[in-house]
Amino acid sequence: MSESIVPPEVRPKPAVPAKPPHVAAPSPTAPHGPSGLGGGVGVDRVPGLGHSGGGSTLLGYIGIDTIIEQMRKKTMKAGFDFNIMIVGHSGLGKSTLVNTLFKSQVSRWSSGWGSEHKIPKTVEIKAVSHVIEEGGVKMKLTVIDTPGFGDQINNENCWDPISKYINEQYEKFLKEEVNIARKKRIPDTRVHCCLYFISPTGHSLRQLDIEFMKHLSRVVNIIPVIAKSDTMTPDEKNEFKHRVRKELETHGIEYYPQNEFDDDMEDKNENDKIREAMPFAVVGSDKEFQVNGKRVLGRKTAWGVVEVENPNHCEFALLRDFLIRSHLQDLKEVTHNIHYETYRARRLNDNGDV
Prior knowledge:
Helix content: 25-40%
Number of helices: 8
Number of strands: 11
Order of helices and strands: EEHEHEEHEHEHHEEEEHH
């Protein structure tokens, strides 16, 4: 008696989920990595599943590419903090340059601090905060000025108040961080960047410049700039820049971006170009002039107008792009991961009460 043969169960093929209409279709030439992620859109293959061909095409759109949009929305809601310190003796155009950088009146002189014109007997710290909005992005900008620095006959240890202020901000952040019931978002008052203004002497760095950067380069990101560079000829400027770089190297002074913080070859190549251009020779101005039918920021001289944003006249545009458009987030990360972590480890190792 022959046995009846039961045919295998035929399962209906599942329906393919439709891709959301707002998501762009992947490029047919998009490369596929070894993990099977194609063009950041969805998973194409999963090894070990399906046919003997080594993989099986999945049936629909997953949505991994929306992670970036999710992150963008959250950070847009939270906003950003950026704290910049400006250091240099009086008359170098520190406040003007900061106003020019952000195209707003953000310096202490522009915010009601300038009622007294007397130079302080010691270094004072003046912090002014503003909320700047551009393209829907809000940033709380804090400008920390240091009036009185380098203006006295005896400038011995005049960097101590600045160093104390920087460490106080680290301490304040650390205390919030170690609290049992800490805030969901800790206010960040740490100094992310210090613009150090060098006098355009054309000769060499002053001893005060060397001592300040030597003491502070280990606790904050220092970016040296040559102020009022329009007072030098192009040859004098290039020679002075080369001499300053040589002196910084001789005294073992590291400035941002440091070589050891380059993550990969692409970062290294980009940062090498920036390091070769440092210190930036800049000119600041908040006054507009008519040049070739266009309104430009500049400084009027007997020979013409020095255009602030013209790369042939000064390196202000290079400094602005470096500081805001390409390295602002990296400045914050280096502050948190390097300078703050160094301070935190030292405080906790000392078994001090936090």
